[in-house]
Design goal:
single chain, 233 residues, Thiol Ester Dehydrase, Chain A, 2 domains, 7-stranded antiparallel beta sheet, two-stranded antiparallel ribbon, 9 strands
């Protein structure tokens, strides 16, 4: 239960994570919501539109911010909610949703909280496994992963369906990456990265002794907005 006295301005109130987004969800939403624009369900339509594939419906992404608020405080206590799209969400993305407490106040007999709400898309570019000396801190390991060089060579012959694939990671001293357990995700193939606008970072998904799982991810704002909720007695 949310308690008024425990809420502090400047801190995060509600938060939620959802994903990965699936293409099948976009099809279901298109049929249920009536937005049948093919850029959300047809890969070639998305490519022709310059989106390099399908993208999520804006209102579908918005709905998760609404769910976050309802799960946190109850639908009957949401007084207002709105936002604007600032970035696309795609298949495979995770939605990181949060509400920052901006103001606490009382009005017309209610205890109200103004929130700055946000949906951030987390997009995986590389996911893999490796080994590193336990003496290397997580912070240093992340820096090594971010500064490494990821090189891929692909040869494909459509007539035979034969393809050859070679993946290398260079300049990562003190760390051994298991190439057979490391994959390039769809954003690499689709070239979803925007030079000068996007930034990739590394994350340690899990770590035990000398083994670890990692990801190379992009975090990008998708929706920013505001909400006002009432805190029940």
């Amino acid at each position: 239960m949310v308690k008024w006295d425990e809420l502090k301005e400047g801190e995060i109130g509600p938060k939620m994570e959802y994903g990965p987004l699936m293409r099948s969800e976009f099809i279901v939403y298109a049929n249920a919501g009536g937005d049948t624009n093919p850029i959300h369900t047809d890969e070639f339509a998305g490519i022709r539109a310059g989106n390099k594939g399908v993208i999520a419906h804006g209102l579908y992404s918005h709905a998760f911010l609404g769910k976050m608020l309802v799960d946190w405080i109850g639908a009957e206590n949401v007084r207002s909610y709105g936002g604007r799209m600032v970035g696309m969400a795609r298949p495979g993305d995770f939605l990181l949703l949060s509400g920052k407490i901006i103001k606490k106040y009382e009005q017309d007999g209610e205890k109200l909280v103004d929130l700055e709400i946000k949906s951030v898309t987390k997009t995986y570019y590389v996911r893999g496994m490796g080994k590193a000396d336990p003496s290397i801190s997580d912070e240093d390991l992340i820096k090594k992963l971010e500064n490494a060089e990821y090189e891929v060579e692909v040869e494909f012959t459509p007539a035979t369906g034969k393809w050859e694939y070679e993946f290398k990671i260079k300049n990562i001293d003190g760390v051994e990456i298991n190439i057979k357990r490391t994959v390039l995700d769809e954003p690499v193939v689709r070239d979803w990265f925007r030079p000068g606008k996007d930034k990739l970072t590394a994350e340690i998904i899990s770590r035990k002794k000398d083994s670890f799982r990692f990801g190379i991810v992009r975090l990008r704002d998708s929706i920013v907005g505001t909400a006002t909720v009432a805190i029940p007695e």
